[in-house]
Amino acid sequence: MEQKSYIAKAGTFEKKYYLIDAKDKVLGRVAAKAATILRGKHKKIYTPNVDTGDYVIIINADKIRVTGRKLEDKEYQYFTGYPSGRRVIPLGELMKKKPTQAMLLAVTRMIPNGPLGYKIRTNVRIYAGDKHPHKAQKPIPLAV
After folding, report:
1. What are the DSSP calls for 24-53, one per residue?
2. Strands (E), the chain
3. What span, in angstroms and rounded, lies between the C-alpha atoms of 107 and 105?
4. pLDDT digits (tens, 9 = 90+) for 125-138
5. How many other β-carbons are positioned within 10 Å of the β-carbon of residue 14?
């Protein structure tokens, strides 16, 4: 009995849009579900070196929940490029200034680096409110 492995080719399958409502959901769980869909691991045709993933729309990113004391203890850092330019911002402060940034960082850091990973990261859209301009794509609601 001969078995053949299926290897997906780019452009031979249809991509769908999924809608995730992050209201009162835990940040990491929503990000993990979104990263799985973005990479295409939920499909039978998953191929690691081909973008088999779908598009993800996340709404209500400003109403996410975190467990424990992460709002005070979890810190994000960035560098300005100048000497002594390291900046540290706690999660609570980041959520006040840029409500979608924490969700974006969580999702993108769950996707591997490299040319394919950089392309996959462009397939996610995150919105602070419950409105989004993607009604024409008919996104499929997804429970987390």
Report:
1. T-BHHHHHHHHHHHHHTTTSTT--TTS---
2. 17-21, 55-59, 75-79, 86-90, 124-126, 140-142
3. 6
4. 999 999 999 999 99
5. 6
Pairing of strands 55-59, 17-21: parallel
Nearest-CA neighbor of 11 among 36, 35, 45?
45
Q: Which pLDDT tens digit goes with each residue over 17-38?
A: 999 999 999 999 999 999 999 9
Beta-carbon count within 10 A of 66 CB = 16
Give me the CATH code for the 17-142 domain, please: 3.90.1180.10
What is the model's pTM? 0.92
Of residues 99, 55, 102, 56, the one with CA closest to residue 76: 102
**Token pair belonging to 53:** 């993933």
Domain boundaries, the chain: 17-142
